[in-house]
Every structure is written in structure tokens, then in C-alpha cells.
Design a protein that fits this description.
heterodimer, A: mainly alpha, 2 strands, B: 517 residues, mainly alpha, two-stranded antiparallel sheet, globular
């Protein structure tokens, strides 16, 4: 690090630290040491440090614009041939992602002040959000796979704690467990990949790894099997983080957690996972063609499956969280086809719009205390800001002109159509499904006649409305931001026919959304075919049940088997030897008869046996 | 840095303080209150900890080989010398011993029976463990290794739980067999090589034929395998833990198991490099089996203490894996794993002890919702989350860097065994998450579920609050776990030279004798 670097740049490593320090600052309130005046000070302190992170981040961006991308590097642990470093890549892409993370965190924290107004454990929530934000800021900046892994695991931990925030509720308990374990499976596979990379490639810096992977593939230094396993391990971590099939269940269950955390989880956390995958892709692609194929397949299944399952959800949060899985599937396809630029644009468009959508959802939940679509309806224009957020957010996650999604979809189709027409169809079909879902939810929440729970629905309080409206404006500005980030070849660099195709898929989606029956009462259809389909989608293709059968039950039975072995065989053997020696002693005790002759006989037999043994032993030696 | 001369005798101090302290406590006037005896013990242990830190200060991490050596002839006829020395392998363990014995003394409460003997035995164990870690003579090591046995047996069989006699006897028999095998191997080494010298000479074994080496190493492996413990010699451990009181569990898991892994590295790997290289693939498989067996058995446990005990079986398997791989990074990982397992398992046992004292049970089918902020044990629960996450190898805590080093060092040599052990690391998350989810999440209850939602979790339970002095040791341990996880170089720089030298020497010797070099 040269001394000539501007001060904000030199101290960029502080930006993740701000988040973590927010956690430490909240501790006195979270742990109940300070009880006077309630937990609000912890929230204010967190807001302050997050604001600091946003400002610091923008200063760094200004400097990087002026002097170009920089790299910060600190030694952390060095032993023998292992050199673990903390590296930060200050490229514009990373910094843009950082600003997305910190800004969203700030907006969500303001929003949470309103949403969790009377929450007892407000300070604990802010402590966790601080931790969350710190880990995410670090992930997007990190320049090596070790630091990325390190922070992804911290994200897993904080997700677990945030989902388990209301830990007294039974659904929350299982949701937190599933969130942790699903992500942990991905993380352990990723760790296997990282450990293997550390052993084979030496350096863990992404840039060194790219060179190494290209060379290794050219010279055949890594066997095809090893390369494939490595590739699969590396993509497993991001798959878990981005809630992709087959590790998608947790995101839906995680909706049991507080909504402000759901906002972050559905927008920026999945973005972090995708960014890590983006950084890993140049390592995976040359070594493992299969892993690349897997990415495309997983992306396709997640995109279409998520879109379909979302249509049958009655929980308003879950309906949109499956949308996240679906959208990230498209991002995975873009990453798998090595279109990092478009993938980043997709992520940007999605992150902001999805967050806005979830803010609208939070506003509905806070006002009605209900998140069941069958009990919502007829709100109409009584919550104008929320309605606007719903519409703009919905337009943002679908490809509606002129919002961000439209341009990304157009660019992507332009790339896909010549080489992979079937994937282009996936994009259009997903857009159709997403649009249908948005329209369906919009209809059931705002349309129709008011229901008991929606008779009195004032607009949400200003602490929630202010961030929501600000974000609405931001989402509307996304195309301009995109144009600024990606001026060459420009966001409209695709033929108008493709734009029309995207639009038409959206219109078809609107049509489907309008035709779908409204779930005023959650009555299953009487037609057997429709009912089977309805159940299939509502229960997520029965994946939870499938996992219970093929993963949970086998592991549990193996564990019980091991316990049985331990109790019966191992302990049985030990106790058996003990009993045997005791009973032998008891038996021998009875041979003591007092007859001198028998003692003498025993002595003589013993001596004879000893002598014979000696003789045999000596004979054996000589 | 201080050059260790005979006039300094720092290491002897590490033995003298606890031994003399133990004697003082035994001779303390009868009728002294347990609180006073506890205070005296704590003061003695603070002095021991301070002296351990002085040794750390006097230790030169850049120098290879034993330091601060002391050598006196004791019983020359049988080759028993009073020879002490410290290197990067034993120094962290000496430090852990001092710290955890102090923790054990601090958390000792309600000793109504024979407090003098209790505290004297605690100090005796600490001194004997120090002696075993510092001994440079095989017989001297064996003496200290056995010396720790009787006090621990007493601690379990006098101050233990309901089934203490069974558990204590089992512990005694297992460990006595372990001792016999180790003594047999040491005597065999001297007998077969014709050396009357029991000093720690790494190259003695190359005078032996491979058959003899394998035989002696096999005896050592089983002997130390019982102590570590490795599957299938682990049966004494869960019983000992469940019957021992919390401080004794802390000592057992945190300090005494490390004697086994230390012995494996110091005597197995260093004395028999050639045979070790021959057996290494088998040892790696053994390690993986131990890891998976321990983790799977832990999943099926309902007693929190048994669960933690089986997790110990699993986690000590990593040390064997690292020793089998025998690369500099893996051996450093082994030292890290010994230290972090010491801290983390001590923390886990301590917290389980608090739960047990407040609720009267450790049954996961009975406990629910202990995290309740007003009526439950919120701080204990939060610390428990830290402890289980550390044990599951979450980054930022000591368990992660240890496992990372072990895996990184081993994967190049034994990829399959390493990957299987990593699966075991994933399973750790499963059982410890079950523990937290069952006992700490949900509605507060300390009764078995009846299946009736009207009853379950609705009984008004109010647990006695946990006093700060009870959680203070746990907070200190948790802080140490986080600190070691964030600044691993603090331990790394103490041990790196020693572990690197050990790996280099061992692999060179093995290479020379197998004709590669």
C-alpha cells in the first residue's frame, strides 16, 4: 500500500468494520445492561455507523474514479507454505455493490425503526443487522476466496440468528434450523473447494487463481474428476446463498423472520452470493465444463420452478421470496454463460426492486397484522405509498419498460438467441410467470371488496413510508444508473424485436395473472387435475417431504445405528469383559477347597506347563 | 529473551507450584471453609498461570528444539532422568493447562465433602499434566502420565454423579491399560535398541527392524488412542463426563485428553517416523472413522453432556488426521486444534453445567426455550450459541482456523480421509444446532412434552437468575475463543517453528530410511 493513496482509500477496510462495530455498540442494550430509556439508542448508533459506511464508500468511489482501481492487502496468518491474507479489491464494480449494500442497509434500518416499533429486542435486531451489513460489505470487496468464504459463513451465522429472531415460535425454530443447515451444506462444500484450491494453487487471490486455473486446464494439471469436483464444490456455496434449487427451501421458510431482515435477505444477501459466484466463475469455467452446465440447469430449474411455485403461495412474503429464487436462477444462467456485465445489471435491477417490493409487503403486514393473501383484499387506494411501492417494485422485478429489468432482459436475450434459444425461452417464460405472480398478489391485496382484516388500513407510519418512497424513486432511476455504469455498448444495444418479445411475455403474464382465480378462501379446486397441480405447487413440488425422506431420515437412522453400535457392541464388549473377569474370579473362588493334595497338584501342573513353554520358546528361537 | 540456564529453573517452578500447593492444601488446618480453600487454590493457580506466561515470555519462538532445559540425573540405573524442556508443541498446552485449571477452580461451588482433598487433587492433576508436557525423558513422562490418573479417579468417584463408581472404575481400567501399553512400548524401545537411556531421541528407532517398530508404535497408538480417545477405545469418556462434576469435565475435556494427542505427536510421530509413514494411510482412515462415528453418535444423544462428550471424540479425530498427514501446516493445525478444542469444549461443559444447575436436567427432550429473556437463561444461551458455532467451525472463532489448517495441510496427502472429516465438521453443525434449537429456542419449559398444546410450554417456569460470577469464566473463555479466531498468529508464532521442524525431521527420516533420499 503506497502512502500516496488518499486517506479514504487507505482506510477502506474500515467499511466492513463499521457494520461490525455497530454490533458491538448495540451490545449494552441487546444484553440488557442498559435498560433505561429503552433500546432506541442502539438503533441510532447503528444508523450512524451505517451512514458513515455509506459516506466513506462514496468518498472511495470518488477517489477510484480519479485514480483508477486499487488493491488493498493485509497479511493475516502465515505458516509454512500457507499465506492467508485479507485482500480488498477496490474496483468500481465492487464499490458499486458495496454502495448498494450499505445504502440498502441504511434504508432498511430506518424502515425497521418503524416496523419494529414496539419490539422488545430492538437492540438485538440492530446488533444482528450490523453484523449482517459488515459481513456483506466485506464479501463484495474481498479480493480473495478465503476472505469471501470467511465472510459468507458469517452471513450464514447472522442469517440464522436473524431468522431465529423470534425464537419462541415453533415455525421460526424450524426455519432458523433449515436456513442454517441448508447454507451450511453449501458452505462445507465450498470449504472443500477452498481447501483444495489452497493446497493446489497456493495463492487464494482471485486474480492469481484465474491465471492458475487457465494454466492448469491447459496443461492438464488437474484431472477431470478433481476439476469437476472442485467446480461443483465452489458453486455449491453461492447456490445455497442464492437459494437455488436444490438448496432453495430455506429462503421461503426464512420469511418467518422480521420483515426488515427479509428485505435485505431477498435483495442484497442473494446479490452477495451471486457476486461471489461471479468472482469464482473464471476459476470454475476452465476446470469444469460440467459445473458450468450444472449452473445452467440449476438456474433453469430455479427460474421456472420458483416462478411456478410462487403462483400457488398464500403467504404474501413467501409468494415473493420464491420470486427471488426464480430471478436469481436467471442471474445464474447469465453467470454460467460468462456474461458478468449483464449479470451485474440484473442484480442491480433486482436488488432495488425486490427490496421495494418487500417494503410494500412489510407495510401491509404492519398495518393489517396479516400476511395471508386469503385474508387480504380491497385495500384499494387507501395506502397510496404502499400501492405505489407494490407497482413500481413489481414492475422492477419484471421486465416492464422503461425500468431496469427490461433493459437487462433485452441485452440477455440478444446474447442468448443465437447460441441458446431454449434459454431465451426460459427468460421469457420466467418473465411471464413473475408478472403473473405480481399481478395475482396485487389483485388479491388491493382489489376486490375489503375483508375483516382490511377494513381499516391507514398508510404506514412515516419511518416506514419515507424509506419506501425514497426507494421507489431510486428504482425509477435505475435505468439511468445502469446507463452510467455500463455506457458501452449501452443498455439499449439490442434489436427492437427482442424488446417487443420481452414486452409481450410481460403482457401474457398480466393476462395470466388476471385470469388466475383469487384465493379469497383457500379452497382447493374440486377438479382433481387442478387440485393435484395446486397442491404440487403450493407444497413446493413436495421437496421438503422429499428431503425428509432422502436426507433427514437416512442421517437420523445412521445416527441411531451408530448409537446402537455404541451401546450394544462397544459398551457391551467393555461391560462383558468386566463381567467375565468378575465371574471368573467368583468361579475360581469356589475351587479353594482346603485340600492340600489339590494345591500341590496345581503347583506341579503349573511348573510343568512353564517348563514346557520355556522349552518350546527356546526351541523356537534356536 | 532469556537463555534458560540451570539457575533459572522456570519449568521446575511449573511443577513445584501446583505440587507444593497441593501439599499445602492437604495440610491445611481442618475445619477451614470450602470458600477459603477455593480462594487459596485460585491464588496458587494464578501464580501458576503467571509463571506460565513468564515461560511464554522467556521462550524464543524463532529457535528450534527444546528450550529452558533442565537436566538432573535421578535414578541412573534405570535411565530415569529429571529432564525438562519446552518447545512450541508443549508450550501452548502448558498455558491451556494453567488457564483451564484456574477456570475449574473458579467454577467449583458447593463442595461440601472433603474440600481439602478436592482442591489438592485438582492441583495435583495440573502439576502432573505440566510434568507430562515438559518431560524430556520417556520414563519421566510415564510417571507424570500415571500420576494424573489417581487424582482424577478420586475426583470422579467421590464428587461425581449417581453412577460415579461405574464410570470412575471404567476410566481407571481403560487409562491403566493405556499406561501399560505406553510403558511397554517405552521399555521395548530401550530393550530392543539396547539403549539404557530413556531420553527423547528421535532417531533411536532406526536401529530397529520395521516389524519391531510397527509393534512398538502400535502399542503407543492404542495406548494414546485410549486417552484421546479414538473409536473404538472411547467408551470410558461419555460415562466419565456424565458422572463427573462440571469442573472435572472441564479438566478432562480441556486438558487431560490433550495428553493423548500430545503423546501421539511427541512419541508416536517423533520416535517412530519410519513406521509412522508406513501406517499413515491407515491412521488417516482411522481418523475419518473416528470423526464420523463421534459426530453421528452425537446426533442421536439426548443428554447434553453426552453429546458434547461425543463431539470431543469427533474433534480429536482431526488431530490424528493432521498427525497422519504430517505436513507443517497440518501439524500446526493439530496444535491449534488441541488448543481450540481445549477452550471450546471447556466452554461447552461449563455452560451445560450452568443449565444443569439451574434446571436440574440435561435432557434435550425436556428442556425448551431457555433463551427466554426474563425467566430463562439468556446470557448462558447466547454464550452457548457462540460455543456451538465455534465448535462447528464458524470463521472468526478458534475452531475455524484450526480445522482449516488441518484440512489444508492434509488434503494433499489424504484427500478422501480429509473430505470425510470435513463431512464430520458439517455434522457438528447438525447436532449442535439440534442442541440449541431444542434447549434454547421455543417456549420456555423444563418438563417433558405431553403432546397437549394446552399444557406444553405454558407452565409458568421461572429459573433462578445466573449470577455474573457464574458466567464470568464462560465470558472469558468465549473471549479467548474469539480472540484466537481473529488473531491466530498469536498462537501460530509460538508453535510454527516446532511443528515445521517436526514435520521436516519426520519426513526426512522416513525418506532416508525408505531410500528415497
Amino acid at each position: 500500500m503506497s502512502a500516496a493513496l488518499p486517506l479514504p482509500l487507505q482506510f477502506t477496510w474500515l467499511i466492513p468494520v463499521y457494520g461490525f462495530s455497530g454490533m458491538l455498540l448495540s451490545l449494552p442494550w441487546a444484553s440488557g445492561w442498559i435498560k433505561r430509556n429503552g433500546p432506541r439508542p442502539a438503533a441510532y448508533l447503528n444508523l450512524l455507523v451505517t451512514l458513515l459506511a455509506v459516506i466513506h464508500g462514496s468518498l472511495v468511489i470518488r477517489d477510484v474514479f480519479a485514480i483508477g482501481p486499487q488493491h488493498l492487502d493485509f497479511a493475516w496468518f502465515k505458516a509454512a507454505d500457507l499465506d492467508l491474507r485479507l485482500g480488498f479489491d477496490l474496483s468500481l464494480t465492487n464499490l458499486a455493490a458495496l454502495e448498494l449494500v450499505t445504502t440498502m442497509s441504511l434504508i432498511c434500518q430506518v424502515y425497521a425503526l418503524g416496523y419494529l416499533d414496539k419490539e422488545w429486542s430492538l437492540a438485538r435486531f440492530y446488533a444482528l443487522i450490523g453484523f449482517f451489513e459488515g459481513a456483506m460489505s466485506g464479501v463484495v470487496l474481498s479480493s480473495n476466496v478465503f476472505l469471501s468464504y470467511f465472510l459468507l459463513e458469517m452471513l450464514t451465522l447472522s442469517t440464522y440468528l436473524l431468522v431465529g429472531f423470534w425464537y419462541a415460535q415453533p415455525l421460526v425454530v424450524t426455519a432458523a434450523r433449515d436456513a442454517f443447515l441448508t447454507k451450511r451444506v453449501g458452505d462445507v462444500l465450498l470449504l472443500m473447494g477452498v481447501v483444495a484450491l489452497a493446497a493446489w494453487a497456493g495463492s487464494l487471490e482471485f486474480n492469481d487463481l484465474y491465471v492458475w486455473a487457465a494454466e492448469a486446464a491447459n496443461q492438464g494439471r488437474v484431472g477431470p474428476l478433481a476439476g469437476t469436483l472442485l467446480g461443483l464444490g465452489l458453486i455449491a456455496g453461492p447456490m445455497g446463498k442464492c437459494a437455488q434449487f436444490p438448496m432453495h427451501l430455506w429462503l421461503d421458510e426464512a420469511m418467518e423472520g422480521p420483515n426488515p431482515a427479509s428485505i435485505l435477505r431477498n435483495s442484497v444477501v442473494v446479490t452477495c452470493g451471486a457476486i461471489v459466484l461471479l468472482k469464482l466463475m473464471p476459476v470454475v469455467a476452465p476446470l469444469s465444463p460440467l459445473a458450468t452446465q450444472v449452473l445452467l440447469v440449476v438456474g433453469t430449474i430455479s427460474a421456472l420452478g420458483g416462478g411456478l411455485v410462487a403462483l400457488a403461495q398464500v403467504d404474501i412474503k413467501r409468494a415473493f421470496s420464491y420470486g427471488t429464487t426464480s430471478y436469481l436462477g436467471l442471474v445464474f444462467i447469465a453467470i454460467g454463460l460468462q456474461q458478468p456485465g449483464i449479470a451485474l445489471l440484473l442484480l442491480l435491477a433486482h436488488g432495488l426492486a425486490r427490496a421495494l417490493q418487500f417494503m410494500g409487503v412489510g407495510s401491509i403486514i404492519a398495518t393489517t397484522n396479516c400476511q395471508d393473501l386469503t385474508e387480504l383484499g380491497g385495500i384499494g387506494t387507501r395506502m397510496p405509498a404502499t400501492l405505489l411501492a407494490f407497482m413500481v417494485g413489481g414492475a422492477g422485478v419484471t421486465a416492464l419498460v422503461p425500468l431496469g429489468g427490461f433493459w437487462c432482459f433485452g441485452l440477455m436475450l440478444n446474447v442468448l438467441l443465437p447460441a441458446h434459444p431454449q434459454l431465451a425461452a426460459v427468460f421469457l417464460l420466467t418473465n411471464l410467470l413473475t408478472t403473473a405472480n405480481v399481478i395475482r398478489v396485487l389483485r388479491s391485496v388491493f382489489g376486490g371488496a375489503p375483508l375483516p382484516k382490511t377494513r381499516r388500513t391507514p398508510e404506514c407510519n412515516w419511518l416506514m413510508a419515507l424509506p419506501m418512497v425514497s426507494l421507489t424513486v431510486l428504482v425509477l432511476l435505475v435505468p439511468l444508473i445502469m446507463q452510467r455504469i455500463d455506457p458501452v455498448p449501452g443498455i439499449a444495444a439490442f434489436p427492437p424485436a427482442l424488446g417487443l418479445a420481452v414486452l409481450l411475455s410481460g403482457c401474457a403474464g398480466v393476462l395470466v395473472g388476471c385470469l388466475l382465480p383469487k384465493d379469497e378462501f383457500w379452497s382447493r379446486s374440486r377438479q382433481p387435475v387442478v387440485r393435484v397441480l395446486q397442491d404440487l405447487l403450493a407444497y413446493d413440488f413436495y421437496t421438503p417431504e422429499l428431503y425428509r425422506r432422502i436426507i433427514v431420515m437416512p442421517v437420523a437412522s445412521i445416527a441411531r445405528f451408530v448409537l446402537w453400535v455404541d451401546r450394544t457392541l462397544v459398551k457391551g464388549l467393555v461391560d462383558g469383559v468386566g463381567r467375565l473377569s468378575l465371574s471368573t474370579a467368583e468361579g475360581l473362588k469356589l475351587t479353594i477347597s482346603g485340600q492340600l493334595q489339590s494345591y500341590v497338584l496345581t503347583l506341579i501342573v503349573g511348573i510343568l506347563m512353564l517348563l514346557a513353554a520355556f522349552q518350546w520358546f527356546r526351541g523356537g528361537l534356536s | 529473551m532469556v537463555q534458560g540456564g540451570p539457575e533459572l529453573m522456570l519449568l521446575s517452578g511449573l511443577l513445584l507450584i501446583p505440587f507444593v500447593g497441593s501439599l499445602v492444601l492437604l495440610l491445611w488446618p481442618a475445619g477451614a471453609s470450602p470458600q477459603r480453600l477455593r480462594l487459596v487454590t485460585i491464588v496458587i493457580l494464578l501464580v501458576q498461570l503467571a509463571l506460565s506466561l513468564v515461560v511464554v515470555w522467556a521462550f524464543d519462538p524463532a529457535a528450534a528444539g527444546m528450550q529452558l532445559q533442565e537436566q538432573h540425573s535421578w535414578v541412573p540405573g534405570i535411565g530415569l532422568d529429571y529432564a525438562l524442556g519446552v518447545d512450541g508443541l508443549s508450550l501452548p498446552l502448558v498455558l491451556i493447562n494453567a488457564a483451564l485449571t484456574l477456570v475449574a477452580a473458579v467454577i467449583t461451588r458447593d463442595i461440601d465433602r472433603r474440600p481439602r482433598i478436592y482442591f489438592a487433587m485438582l492441583l495435583l492433576i495440573s502439576g502432573a499434566v505440566n510434568g507430562a508436557f515438559l518431560a524430556e525423558n520417556l520414563l519421566l513422562f510415564f510417571l507424570f502420565y500415571e500420576l494424573e490418573l489417581i487424582p482424577l479417579w478420586l475426583l470422579i468417584s467421590v464428587w461425581g454423579g449417581v453412577d460415579r463408581a461405574y464410570a470412575a472404575t471404567k476410566f481407571l481400567i481403560f487409562t491403566a491399560i493405556s499406561g501399560m501399553l505406553i510403558l511397554g512400548a517405552f521399555l521395548g524401545l530401550s530393550l530392543l535398541t539396547g539403549s539404557v537411556d530413556f531420553s527423547l531421541t528421535p532417531v533411536l528407532s532406526d536401529r530397529l527392524a520395521m516389524g519391531g517398530q510397527l509393534l512398538l508404535l502400535g502399542a503407543l497408538l492404542i495406548g494414546f488412542g485410549i486417552k484421546i480417545p479414538l473409536v473404538p477405545f472411547h467408551n470410558w469418556l461419555p460415562d466419565a463426563h456424565t458422572q463427573a462434576s462440571t469442573p472435572v469435565s472441564v479438566m478432562l475435556a480441556g486438558v487431560l485428553l490433550k495428553l493423548g494427542t500430545y503423546g501421539l505427536l511427541r512419541f508416536g510421530l517423533q520416535l517412530f517416523p519410519e513406521a509412522w509413514a508406513r501406517l499413515a494411510p491407515g491412521l488417516a482412515i482411522w481418523a475419518a472413522i473416528s470423526v464420523l462415528y463421534g459426530s453421528l453418535a452425537a446426533i442421536a444423544q439426548t443428554d447434553m453432556k453426552r453429546m458434547v462428550a461425543f463431539s470431543s471424540v469427533g474433534h480429536m479425530g482431526y488431530v490424528l488426521l493432521a498427525a497422519a498427514a504430517n505436513t507443517p501446516v497440518a501439524l500446526l493445525g493439530a496444535v491449534f486444534q488441541m488448543v481450540s478444542h481445549g477452550l471450546i469444549s471447556a466452554l461447552l461443559f461449563l455452560l451445560v453445567g450452568i443449565v444443569y444447575r439451574k434446571t436440574g436436567t440435561r435432557d434435550l427432550q425436556v428442556l425448551h426455550g431457555l433463551l427466554n429473556p426474563e425467566k430463562g437463561l439468556p446470557l448462558t444461551g447466547s454464550l452457548m450459541i457462540v460455543a456451538v458455532m465455534a465448535s462447528a467451525g464458524l470463521p472468526g472463532m478458534a475452531g475455524f482456523i484450526s480445522e482449516f489448517l488441518v484440512f489444508r495441510g492434509s488434503i494433499g496427502i489424504f484427500p478422501v480421509a480429509t473430505l470425510l472429516s470435513m463431512v464430520g465438521s458439517g455434522l457438528t453443525a447438525v447436532y449442535f444446532l439440534l442442541l440449541v434449537n431444542r434447549a434454547f429456542f421455543g417456549r420456555l419449559a423444563v418438563t417433558p412434552p405431553t403432546g397437549d398444546p394446552q399444557v406444553d410450554g405454558r407452565l409458568d417456569v421461572r429459573l433462578a437468575p445466573v449470577a455474573p460470577r457464574e458466567t464470568l469464566p464462560a465470558i472469558a473463555l468465549a473471549a479467548a475463543v474469539v480472540l484466537l479466531g481473529l488473531v491466530p498468529a498469536s498462537l501460530g508464532h509460538l508453535s510454527e517453528v516446532a511443528t515445521t521442524a517436526m514435520a521436516t525431521v519426520a519426513s526426512t527420516v522416513a525418506a532416508i530410511s525408505s531410500g528415497v533420499l
